[in-house]
Design brief:
alpha/beta, binds pyridoxal-5'-phosphate, 20% strand, globular, 8 strands, eight-stranded parallel beta sheet
Length: 215
């Protein structure tokens, strides 16, 4: 069962920040996602391509599906025609392939560049100088619209560390915002979304608070 009361509380809290909620529904069954949809929330995040394309077919047209995982180029074709926002673009190669698939569907594909802000070896993403360079070259990708950035903080209880990482990305976002007409800063999940909001996030990706722990 999705926690609809928690969902409504979250939405109220987020509206005070003008922030968008992405309900992260990965691994959760369609019936539970439908409960959230029926409660009036229509933006979902998934991070497995197969699962995303299966679920998408079972929901009305007005559902927004965000891809928040690590996207492999050979899987783009399964989601290119319907995905609303891709949060994790972090290589030129992926950008080129996304552009090609978007053109094939006569679409402009909305994307976020994933920026590496954590002190962990395992996380994907670009550093600030790579991202700056990519933004400068973005006009050659006619079918891509970069709307902003996504970042994941270190998985730690140290809120000062998390704050430092989120503030760094917010600073970068503000630097680029005017020049590139950016509007989305995707930071924060169940454990750290409050910190993220206080650091300037305007899009949070929340799963377990709404759908419960994943097995
Ligand atoms: C799973 C996931 C989330 C949601 O995590 P919760 O802790 O369940 O809120 C957010 N962002 C990304 C990229 C994820 O993979």
């Amino acid at each position: 069962m999705a926690d609809i009361q928690r969902l409504q509380e979250l939405k109220k809290e987020l509206s005070g920040y003008n922030a968008t909620l992405v309900a992260v529904s990965k691994t959760k069954p369609v019936e539970e996602i439908k409960q959230v949809y029926d409660a009036g929330h229509k933006i979902f995040g998934e991070n497995y391509v197969q699962e995303l394309s299966d679920k998408h077919e079972q929901f009305p047209e007005d559902t927004e599906w965000h891809f928040i995982g690590h996207l492999q180029t050979n899987k783009i074709k399964y989601i290119a025609n319907f995905v609303s926002l891709i949060h994790g673009v972090d290589t030129v190669n992926l950008l080129e392939e996304l552009n090609r698939h978007a053109a094939r569907h006569y679409r402009i594909l909305d994307c976020l560049l994933q920026i590496y802000i954590a002190e962990e070896e395992t996380k994907f993403g670009l550093d600030f100088s790579q991202a700056t360079k990519l933004m400068e070259e973005m006009s050659i990708y006619k079918n891509i619209n970069v709307k902003g950035f996504m970042g994941m903080a270190t998985n730690t209880d140290d809120s000062r560390q998390i704050t430092k990482e989120f503030l760094g990305l917010h600073h970068f976002y503000i630097d680029m915002k005017e020049t590139y007409n950016l509007s989305v800063l995707s930071m924060g999940m169940t454990s750290d979304y409050k910190i993220a909001l206080d650091c300037g996030s305007n899009m949070v990706r929340i799963g377990s608070a709404i759908f419960g722990r994943r097995s």
